[in-house]
Amino acid sequence: MNYYFTQLLKSVFLLAVVFLFHMQITFARSSGVTGRTKKFNAGCNGNNCHGNTATSGVSVMIMGQDTVMVGQTENYSLMIMGGPAVKGGTNIAISSGTLTQISSTLKKDNASGELTHNAPASFSGGNLTFQFSYKAPATAGAQTIYATGNSVNGNGQSSGDQWNYAENKIITVIPLTSVE
Q1: Which residue, of 34, 70, 170, 180, is most buried by count of CB atoms within 10 Å of its CB?
Q2: Within-domain flag for 136
Q3: What global pTM score does this model have?
Q4: CB crowding 130-165: b at 16 or more within 10 Å, else e
Q5: What is the CATH number of the domain that holds 116?
């Protein structure tokens, strides 16, 4: 009887270790990942992310001003529609300038300057919107905001999840003009 009890305990322990390891992998990424936009040609594929290829059934749009003055800050929205539409997340990057989260569901990665989600956020009315601001750099020229959005079924697994890139948002940064 003692032998069987010992074997049972070993089995339960091994099962618990495997379960905790799986949970760590699954939920370590639930708090967002950076480096997954067209800026890096990565997307949400690989490493148990959200599938190997972008899905046309998910629409990701960046909305806001097309022209910004040097050093000016403007607010933008990123909207995700389609896919399973239970929960979702994002990764937002820029070619130059500064991003700042407005939505409490976003966080800034200090190393890369990119924005990503704190945890999967819930869709409402068929879409999910993240608010952020963009501060233009000190030099004039064309800049790009890149983004990827995912739409997940909320089961904690990557199967059934979908993602897509946003169309790159080109921002024309213009010099300040003097007023006489």
Answers
A1: 34
A2: yes
A3: 0.78
A4: bebebebbeeeeebbbbbbbbbbbeeeebeebbbbb
A5: 2.60.40.680
In a domain? residue 4: no
Query: How far, in Å, CA of 114 to CA of 108, rounded?
Result: 6
Domain that holds residue 96: 32-174
134 in a domain, yes or no? Answer: yes
Q: pLDDT 10s per residue in the chain (180 long)? A: 576 656 655 655 554 444 433 333 333 346 676 677 777 776 665 555 676 788 999 999 999 999 999 999 999 999 999 999 999 999 999 999 999 999 999 999 988 899 999 989 999 999 999 999 999 999 999 999 999 999 999 888 878 899 999 999 999 999 987 555
Give how many domains the chain has, as a whole number.
Answer: 1
